[in-house]
Design a protein that fits this description.
With 744 residues, the protein is an alpha/beta fold. The chain has 5 domains: 1-28; 31-158 and 295-370, Response regulator (Rossmann fold), CATH 3.40.50; 160-288, Response regulator (Rossmann fold, 3-Layer(aba) Sandwich), CATH 3.40.50.2300; 394-516 and 653-731, Response regulator (Rossmann fold, 3-Layer(aba) Sandwich), CATH 3.40.50; 518-646, Rossmann fold, CATH 3.40.50.
Length: 744
């Protein structure tokens, strides 16, 4: 037996003895986290560590980081049989010191360098590692955009453009501030990045920014800026600064008489700054990547071990550094190599790795992805910020019980991109936010409906068989008509975000929909368009093989007849048809004032394009329900002047809408689609019902959903009618210069 194995076995036995109270040692050995780790390579693995051990950044950042790294190193070597060693260099709390430290470690040939808390220092030091092909992994730095340094650069701290928008959204929804002031260190990379993200998030939420005051690192007096802020009487003051200046600003704000009614919102505020600032910090709000209050597996063990080892409470920077070494060790174990390139590639593939920060992933740029938290200072302690989202069941919150939601979407086939994938994106964004807001643990069981009736039926049956209490999805009404009765018969809630054919609520009392039905949407839109345009003769074309299209057309016929418009012809086609020249030529010859098109996306775009190709003039107004920017882009000028009806638009000032758009753009790099917005709202509505029901029983969720009344969503105040159909205000649009605009 290897000596290392004997030592490890002895250590574990000692822990067991301690756990049952047989040890009388003065200093208790730490409990090992319940972590499975792949075996390390047997060779020594030298890791470079750059932290501030002297100077102004030592105590707030560098020394806690060192403590977190060292605790993780001790545990990992025992758990994995590895031999991680550190080569530590003090950056002396300066940019020059950080550059020299990284260069020294590169020259010594280490495969990885950990550390560098301050984004200013990282910005100039990590390019040295990048140029030499050495992995550089910061556990703390969080200024946006620094991943652009290169593919060897990784970070554990949530970047400001990820953490701050969610924090602003949560606090704004709860506190309702309307006028705010900003103050930041214009000389510091992190502080300027933080302030920029705060500004963008506030503007997206429609909050007025009264002033942006600046200062420079090491300034001791902020009286001029704070006097100006106080005179403007803001509802909240956002402070973006590193620890030293942050504390001074908080203290001086209190001393100058800025009242408690002005909420201080300070990203990265920690227990250290709260202790230093005293009563001046009470009521302040912080955004963070970690909290001592979390019951994430291993977190309380880490806190207990840290307290036993160092005699103090764990700091966020220690926690992030502790998690960082575990993430790195997992990558080295998977790479089975100390080659920098191999470690880089393994790190880049990190996905949902369990850490005390939560399930951790890297985005394609090497930036951290996990859930942020919002905290508030009460009686000198950081506590979880109470949000407007109702709490889930106490038992769920305390045990992290999963709430499994079935998701049935077209992820492949012709309906994937127009409907299924946007819905998936909207649902996932909502799930992340809800879990953060409510301390819930909603999980998805996702099945591909494959863009077919058969696939939809099989997907719902599979989810019912797995025992989920609710199923979300099925966008196409023809598919829903066959699939949702399975859920109804099994007593499982079935909730479609976008299906809108009239009458499908008749399937049963477990069926709900977030999309406005065709009889509501089309009737309203047809009357508004007629009042404005005054058309007298209309032609209709629709897909007679599709449930939604036939329903849409029926609503048009009924409304047009009711308002006295002559219907010249009703042309039909079937799903999958590619050529509509016969129908469109017939329509053109009749010279209507308007052409009403009822179809799903693939056929809709073909008809719009071919209508102009056969010579139907621009004077014939196209009226096309559910026309979205995607289809407009596909058909180009042929869509100009078209009228469409929808349930959501990106300029709406409904609560949370602009924050949703900003978060969607940040997460997916694109503008949100209508179907993503409806899916996002759907999960919020469902989560509210689960919270109201205080249960994951399907019947209880059904009853709570049925009672939903004026629930605020990005679609507007949302209610269900007695049949489980959505009730909120529809919108009429016109295509102008290739863009959807509200039809006036």
């Amino acid at each position: 037996m290897k000596v290392k194995g004997i030592v490890a076995a002895a250590f574990i036995c000692a822990i067991i003895a301690l756990a049952i109270g047989f040890s009388s040692c003065d200093q208790m050995a730490p409990m090992l986290p319940d972590t499975e780790m792949a075996p390390m390579i047997e060779a020594e693995i030298p890791i470079g560590v750059v932290v501030s051990l002297t100077g102004k950044d030592a105590e707030p950042y560098g020394i806690p980081m060192q403590r977190g790294f060292e605790m993780a190193r001790e545990e990992i070597n025992i758990l994995s049989g590895g031999n991680l060693t550190f080569i530590t260099v003090d950056d002396q709390s300066s940019e020059e010191g950080a550059i020299a430290a990284v260069q020294q470690l590169v020259d010594q040939g280490v495969p990885v360098i950990l550390g560098i808390a301050i984004s200013d220092y990282l910005e100039d030091a990590f390019p040295i590692a990048q140029e030499n092909g050495v992995v550089a992994f910061s556990s703390v730095s969080s200024a946006a955009g620094l991943s652009s340094i290169g593919d060897y650069v990784f970070r554990t701290g949530l970047a400001t453009n990820i953490m701050i928008p969610s924090g602003v959204m949560i606090t704004h929804e709860k506190l309702g501030y309307e006028k705010v002031a900003l103050i930041y260190d214009a000389e510091d990379t992190y502080a300027t990045s933080s302030n920029e993200e705060v500004r963008k998030a506030l503007e997206a939420s429609g909050v007025e920014i009264l002033t942006e005051e600046t200062f420079q690192t090491d300034d001791p007096d902020f009286s001029t800026q704070l006097t100006n802020i106080m005179e403007m009487e803001p509802d909240a003051l956002f402070i973006s600064a590193l620890s030293v200046e942050m504390t001074k600003v908080i203290i001086q704000a209190g001393a100058m008489g800025i009242p408690d009614t002005v909420r201080l919102i300070v990203p990265d505020l920690t227990a250290k700054e709260i202790q230093d600032a005293g009563d001046a910090a009470n009521g302040a709000i912080a955004f963070a990547g970690w909290t001592t209050l979390s019951n994430i597996p291993g977190n309380q063990t880490f806190i207990q071990n840290y307290r036993a080892k160092h005699g103090i409470e764990a700091e966020p920077w220690a926690a992030q550094s502790y998690a960082t070494l575990y993430i790195l060790a997992d990558a080295i174990a998977k790479a089975q190599s100390v080659d920098s390139e191999a470690i880089r590639d393994a790190l880049a593939q990190t996905m949902d790795f369990p850490t005390i920060l939560g399930d951790f992933s890297f985005d394609p740029n090497g930036e951290a992805m996990y859930d942020a938290v919002v905290l508030t200072v009460k009686d000198g302690e950081l506590q979880l910020f109470e949000t407007a989202m109702p709490q889930m069941m106490d038992e769920m919150a305390s045990t992290s019980q999963e709430i499994p939601i079935g998701v049935a979407l077209a992820l492949t086939g012709p309906f994937a991109e127009p409907y299924g994938l946007p819905m998936q994106r909207g649902l996932e964004l909502a799930r992340e936010e809800i879990n953060m807001l409510s301390d819930a643990n909603i999980t998805f069981v996702t099945v591909d409906a494959q863009s077919t009736v058969e696939g939809g039926v099989a997907a719902v049956q599979q989810l019912v068989d797995q025992g989920v209490p609710a199923i979300v999805g099925i966008g196409v009404s023809t598919h829903l008509e066959q699939a949702f009765p399975i859920a109804q018969e099994s007593g499982v809630v079935a909730f479609s975000p976008i299906s809108s054919a009239t009458g499908l609520s008749a399937l049963g009392d477990y069926i709900f929909r977030a999309g406005l039905t065709a009889d509501v949407l089309n009737s309203n839109g047809t009357m508004i368009a007629h009042e404005k345009l005054g058309y007298e003769k209309a032609a209709l074309i629709y897909d007679e093989a599709d449930t939604y299209s036939t329903s849409s057309n029926a609503a048009f016929e009924e409304t047009l007849k009711a308002i006295g418009v002559e219907i010249l012809t009703v042309e039909t086609f079937e799903t999958g048809d590619a050529n509509f020249s016969t129908q469109l030529t017939n329509i053109m010859n009749m010279e209507p004032d308007a052409l009403f098109i009822s179809a799903l996306a693939p056929e809709m775009t073909r008809i719009i394009t071919q209508a102009r190709d056969v010579g139907i003039p621009d004077t014939v107004r196209l009226v096309v329900p559910d026309l979205t920017p995607v289809e407009i882009q596909q058909v180009g000028d042929a869509a100009e002047g078209a009228i469409t009806f929808g349930s959501w638009f990106d300029m709406a000032d409904t609560p949370g809408n602009q924050a949703f758009i900003q978060h969607y753009q940040a997460k997916y790099g694109m503008q949100p689609e209508l179907w993503a917005a409806e899916a996002y709202a759907t999960l919020h509505i469902l989560a509210n019902a689960i919270a109201t029901a205080q249960s994951v029983d399907s019947a209880a969720i059904r009853d709570a959903l049925a009672q939903t009344m004026n629930f605020p969503t990005i679609l507007g105040n949302f209610s269900f009618d007695p049949d489980g159909e959505a009730v909120y205000d529809p919108i009429v649009f016109i295509v102008k210069d290739g863009q959807l605009q509200v039809f006036e």
